[in-house]
Design a protein that fits this description.
Blueprint lengths: L1 H20 L4 H26 L7 H19 L3 H23 L4 H21 L1 H4 L12 E2 L2 E2 L3 H23 L2 H11 L1 H6 L4 H27 L9 H14 L5 H16 L7 H15 L3 H33 L1
Antiparallel strand pairs: 1-2
């Protein structure tokens, strides 16, 4: 029931926010749409890092695959955006399945370096295949998203669409991690050798979650391409992967909701401190260090701990008041 309440609150806030503002400017809607897209990226990476314990710096590569698949199919071949979106997810899933068996045999820093290589290779291919991707100049004229004949040319309509997708991805991630599949991933994360000893096919589970995580990243990429209408290689660089990784550790790795909070925080922060834009990377690094030192379980973990302390204090107060009333009655 508590989970249902949080879902209803999030849904109510999403619906009511534009209404309370009396409408949104294109700038406000762009910020909120990008926040939604990065929430999807952070939650999907948390499936891989937080629940299976596989450190990945290659999320930007699959973000790019989704964006460029949608962009190329729609801008150059006039494909339906919804078809391009699903093809991008399938293409990302197929690549993940093919390379996952070899990449995920590595562990720790070796795995991080291998996935970093995926981002570098993808970035190089985007620049090199100029006739198809537009190269370093980028890919332009990507149409707005269209679904069942309705085109999301209005920025507020697209805001609602993106956040409906965010809620669906959030529901899918929470369902997955609370299923037997998710509990098996936790077992692999805790002790892969012990999990293999009791008969768990660790390689199969790690590749499966790698595929799911990267398909969600491709979904985010498609939403991003149709919103921006122009994409360039620098949108999907190594720094993008690092930025997403910072989000999940900032919010609280292995919680799904924590990375979502981290994504909201890190995407809103530049808007609030735009005068210090030149020091954004320095600021993000400093914030991450402070959080890891003083809030090792992230923002979400700190909020949960604070809520638990408040509940404990309230319980103790009620208990002492009850004891006082009991003593009074006995006296």
């Amino acid at each position: 029931m508590k989970t249902l309440y949080w879902w209803l609150i999030l849904l109510a806030v999403t619906i009511a926010y534009p209404l309370l503002l009396g409408g949104m400017s294109p700038y406000q809607s762009t910020v909120l749409i990008l926040i939604g897209i990065y929430v999807i990226l952070a939650m999907s990476l948390d499936l891989l890092v937080g629940y299976s314990g596989q450190i990945s710096l290659g999320h930007a590569a699959f973000f790019a695959i989704g964006a460029y698949t949608s962009g190329i199919l729609c801008a150059r071949y006039a494909a339906e955006p919804i078809v391009a979106l699903f093809l991008g997810m399938c293409f990302s899933g197929a690549i993940s399945w093919i390379i996952g068996w070899s990449v995920l045999s590595l562990r720790g820093y070796y795995l991080a370096m291998a996935t970093l290589g995926l981002t570098v290779i993808t970035h190089t291919l985007i620049v090199g295949l100029q006739s198809l991707t537009g190269g370093a100049s980028g890919l332009a004229d990507i149409p707005s998203f269209r679904l069942a004949g309705f085109e999301f040319t209005n920025h507020v309509h697209y805001y609602y669409f993106v956040w409906v997708v965010v809620l669906l991805v959030l529901g899918a991630c929470l369902t997955l991690v609370n299923s037997p599949f998710g509990r098996t991933l936790n077992a692999i994360h805790s002790d892969e050798t012990a999990a293999a000893t009791v008969g768990v096919d660790c390689a199969k589970y790690k590749v499966s979650i790698f595929v799911v995580s990267n398909m969600f990243a491709a979904l985010a990429g498609s939403l991003y391409a149709h919103h921006m209408s122009f994409i360039a290689p620098d949108d999907f660089s190594v720094f993008t992967s690092i930025h997403i990784l910072i989000m999940i550790y900032l919010g609280g790795v292995g919680t799904i909701l924590g990375p979502a909070i981290g994504a909201v925080f890190l995407k809103l922060l530049p808007e609030l401190t735009y005068r210090f834009h030149d020091y954004e990377l320095l600021g993000n690094g400093a914030i991450l260090i402070l959080v890891l030192v003083f809030m090792p379980h992230g923002i979400y973990g700190a909020l949960r701990a604070g809520g638990k302390r408040i509940k404990d204090k309230c319980f103790k107060r009620r208990l002492s008041e009850g004891q006082r009333l009991l003593d009074t009655n006995n006296g």
